[in-house]
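User: Before I run my own analysis I want an independent prediction to cross-check against. Here's the chain; please return only the structure tokens and, at the end, one sentence I can use as a sanity check.
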Amino acid sequence: MPKDNGINVLIAEDDLEIAGILRKTLAAEGYRIALAYDGEEALRSALAHKPDLIVLDVMMPQMNGWEVCKSLRARMEYNDVGILMLTAIGPNLNEMTAPLYGADDHLDKPFMIPELLEKLAALALKKHKPAAGATA
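Assistant: Structure tokens:
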């Protein structure tokens, strides 16, 4: 029986290969997964289902990840949602820009799976929900 850590994650990624890798990896760690392939779909999904965590690509069609993040952070009830920005725009720009839009953390592409899992576990703890393998 697959493990379930009780944490809902929205993966917003327009690259189908990366989205598939993220879905498979996070599901294997017990996360409950929802997928969105563009910014508007990500915002609609987040507003409809309020995930615990969001892995949010920056460069997506319809609406970029920064706009999605800013829109969610403008709503008080979404301040407890952990947002990890994921992008290939470059570490310096991502490091400076992600916090300006309200993201909790960022990860640059290409990324290592252990680092992604570590960042999500830290966000889950920060947002008061223990993640798989994390201790309080």
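Sanity check: The domain at 8-126 is CATH 3.40.50.2300 (Rossmann fold).
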